[in-house]
Batch of 2 targets.
Target 1
Amino acid sequence: SAFLSIKQPSSVAMEETLYFDKNHTFQDAIKHDNKGRAVFYWPGRRGYSEYYKYYTDNPYDGVIIKADDDTVFVNSTMVPSYASYLWNHKEIFLLSASVVNQGLCAHYQQKHNAIPESYEIFPFANNGMGDLQTNATQAFRLHSYFLSSEENRKRFFIRDPAFYEFKFTINVNFVAIRGEDMYITWDMILKKLKLEKRYYDEGAITWDAIRFAGMRMGIYMPMVVAHATYSHQLKLERQILSLWTNWAKKEKADFYKGIL
């Protein structure tokens, strides 16, 4: 995962990028690369909790985007709109992107004709995740469909409605939170630790924040990203990543020259 912080919601310039590495300890925590960006390392025992604590202790005047490191596609032109939407709607605590390969997002994407029912069917995921999270074949087919044509990808760009609220746990593959609200995430993580004896940010900052703190959250449909795989989809991880690698070599050859 990585945290991207945006100082001004109207700009896509990233002030700092925080990198995680589970092979390092938090004692190494804040370092700086040659561009002056903060670099974080992930202490495995506490999961990602230290980074929520960092922003609790160091309030940030802007929008913070938490993105999984296996995010394989981001419609970057929509980042300013995404950040601005959260910034201007103070009643919203957490705002998820419309994620390709996320159960609830897939349902709403299909509702607006992004995914034909003749290809795959994604019922309402009343646990926020649905069966897609554990279905590697369905994930592979969804990635294949998304990558098969520019026309298909454009179908996922949904402006109306821009926002769908959810009231349960959701995968936090790509979510935005205002810096001033990060203390709430840390509070929820500590409550989760007390209740369940584990550091679990996903449930803490979604379902727990909803039921214990009355926080409102939802999906911003115009902000489209794609997430590679979940743990139960790993049996087809290589095939899914190959889809993206081949697409990048073909469609983004100039950008990835010498890398792929």
Target 2
Amino acid sequence: MKRQPPTSENESSSFSVGHNDSATSFATGTSVVISDESEQGGRENRISIRGQAAVRFSKVLVFFVLFLAAAAVATVTCILIVNEEQTEFKSQFSGFASEIVTVARQNADQIFATMNALSVSIASSAVATNSTWPFVRVPNWSLKIESLSTLIGGERPVVAFSPIVEEYQRGMWAGYSMQEAPKYYAETIMEQEMNSTVELFMNGTLPFIHYYDAENNFMPAPVMGPAPTLPAWQVEPFVIGHMNVMHTNLDILRFPQIASLFHVTNATRRTSMDFNTDVRKDPSNSIMQPIFEGVDLKSKDSKMVGVVWLTMKW
């Protein structure tokens, strides 16, 4: 049987298949080439992006390191400056504080020495005049306190000499004070060149040891009871007090601050001092110096017979 030659339809179909295979093969090859080029370009872009990111990171890192270095230098500089200022301040403060303490101690020592000298002077005056305690009057009291005020400095202090008067001595003290007060007033008027008279001051002098009774409109009332008293005897500055009454014979033990000082002084036999820091009043301090019978102050057997009380404003 003879094989039939292919018809034009079959040839056309066969050609078509072959052509399609060639086209497919050509198209596939082109696609592979394009894909390789794209992949290479993407790789280069990624490398470029990573490089740029690395550059930016390095810049940020360098900036951060420089910032830390600058902050560290600034912090160290600040700490050094602050420490230096604190050291200088502490040094200056310590110097000023030391100077203040030294001056205060010198002033306190001078005041105590002055008060002690006044106490010895009063005791010596009693011995020189053969006076028995508490019946003692210090001649030229105003002049003595004027010189003492110059040594102490500051504003004019209030200074009072008070003998200790026991209960059994109050009657005798009343007679003694009224006898000696005119002499004391006359001396003071002359020494201070006052435009006043002894009679005026005597009219304001009560002939008994007294206090101001708070339950009776602060009227003067005689001190009663067995407790010892501290009548204000010689006082500087020399003034008329409450209700035109002289301070003479006013029991200063009725004032709590003075009473506290007296108990300390009597117990220790030494000078005592306290401070008044009441905001309603001017700040001040008070000093109490004991007076002993005789002039042998080193003797433990010497009897405390009176006090000198001083108060001064700061």
